[in-house]
Amino acid sequence: MNWDDIRVFLAISRTGQILAAARRLGLNHATVARRLSALEDSLGARLFDRSTSGCVLTDAGSRFYERAERMEAEAVAAEADLGGDTPEISGTVRIGAPDGFGVAYLAPRLGRLTQKHPGLTLQLVPVPRSFSLSRREADIAVTIDRPETGRLRASKLVDYALGLYASKSYIRDRGAPSSSSDLSAHDLIGYVEDLLYSPSLNYGTEITKDWIARFEIASALGQTEAVRGGAGIGILHDFIARGQSELAPVLPELKLRRSYWMVTHESSRPLRHVAAAQEFLRDQVARDRAMFG
Q1: What span, in angstroms and rounded, lies between the C-alpha atoms of 273 and 278?
Q2: How many CB atoms lie within 10 A of CB 108?
Q3: Which one of 45-54, 77-86, 220-229 scores highest in mean pLDDT?
Q4: Residue 202, domain CATH
Q5: Which residues pair with 260 in a beta bridge?
Q6: Are residues 166 and 240 in the same domain?
Q7: Which family does it belong to (predicted)?
Q8: How far apart are CA 186 and CA 180, in angstroms?
Q9: How do residues 58-69 score in pLDDT, each as one tens digit?
Q10: Domain count, the chain
Q11: How far apart are CA 209 and CA 282, in angstroms?
């Protein structure tokens, strides 16, 4: 059994396509297909059901995937151990995060990590969805829910607060509500309900059961900009809204609490460049903890 063939198998499993796996590995399509066939021949089993739409693991392929991941983890650990005397930390780390945390908080601070480790390349993917760490869509994911399944390692980064905000111009023109029951008389801004990727993002119903958004925007930063532009009242992250001079809190006694979690796949544990990024995230957030409260 050839280790390169196993790498090909893992890449196809994670991308679902031979062509996508070839691009990820920097190989041509024919080479990837040939190596997959060689692996299936050596194992005496068909690992994928192949079709024009992609490749789906067979029962045998699913069983082999678990063993192949363990082989990969051992190979990564051996590489990290043999390279342990190398002082420079280098490599590419992809961090997936919700846009509020990823763009508003993390992006302005990532330069500090690359200054410390010039050999690092950082990829920030701030999109509002879940990441498949087992498919290597990200090396580190920042999530708002702790994952309950899979070979994942999760640790809480920080608790954060959200509150109601409006622009000063909106309050000047429309007035400020004196209680949550007054919110029904105002223009409200919230998420697009059928695009919520986590129930914990359904903030409005925790403020009032009558929360009906007139403007629905599928990103935290988009909502912040709409509120800042005077479109209405929205539930915003305190650590973002506090830095906006055009915004004012509304009903400041009403606060919501959520948490950010840092999640990695357990096979990434020996990787020094991923560990360096994790350490940076922990230290940076700990230093800024007060701004999230």
Answers
A1: 9
A2: 9
A3: 220-229
A4: 3.40.190.10
A5: 158
A6: yes
A7: Belongs to the LysR transcriptional regulatory family.
A8: 11
A9: 999 988 988 887
A10: 3
A11: 36
